[in-house]
Amino acid sequence: MFLRILITLLIIPISSNAYGYDYQENYDVIVDGTPRFIGMEEGDYFGGGVNIECSDNRFVGNGYTLKDGNQYTIRTRSNGNDIPGECQIVFNIKVKKSLKSVCKHQTKKSYYFKCPFSLNISQKLDYS
């Protein structure tokens, strides 16, 4: 009798996914990729996050932190046979750059430094 109770107590939490782990089989729409940030200098930080947002409040997996060269995977459910049209992939990009590197070669103008800094963002879609 004790053995039956012990086995029941072990099997139910394992089979019910009580540990919060998201199995890929629970999702039928999976997007993954590897971000590449080009033109980084020593001390620069490029990163951010990626997530799926759906206007119908359907369940989506956890978002993912973007790091240069590291693969991300985001997931959701289609609730049918089609890719959901009410969902968007949302990228939040964060850029940190040293003020000294932005202002290098700038001289003080009367009482201030003026440091030009332009950020060109381009998107290359690679469906490989």
Describe the structure using short key phrases.
single chain, 128 residues, alpha+beta, three-stranded antiparallel beta sheet, two-stranded antiparallel ribbon, 2 helices, 5 strands, 27% strand, elongated
- End-to-end distance, in Å? 55 Å
N-to-C series of helices and strands = HEEEEEH
**Roughly what fraction of the amino acids lie in strands?**
25-35%
The largest sheet has its strands arranged as: 3-2-5
Keywords: Signal
Signal peptide: 1-18
Protein name: ZP domain-containing protein
Organism: Strongyloides papillosus (Intestinal threadworm)
Short description:
This protein is α+β, with helices and mostly antiparallel strands and 128 residues long. It contains 2 helices and 5 strands.
Could you explain how this protein is built, in words?
The chain is of the alpha+beta class. It has a domain at 23-102. It is 14% helix and 27% strand. The protein is elongated, with a radius of gyration of 23 Å. The model is unreliable at 16-24 (pLDDT under 50). Residues 1-18 form the signal peptide. It comes from Strongyloides papillosus. This is ZP domain-containing protein.
Write the layout of secondary structure elements.
Layout: H1 2-15, E1 29-33, E2 45-54, E3 64-67, E4 72-76, E5 87-96, H2 99-102
Antiparallel strand pairs: 1-4, 2-3, 2-5
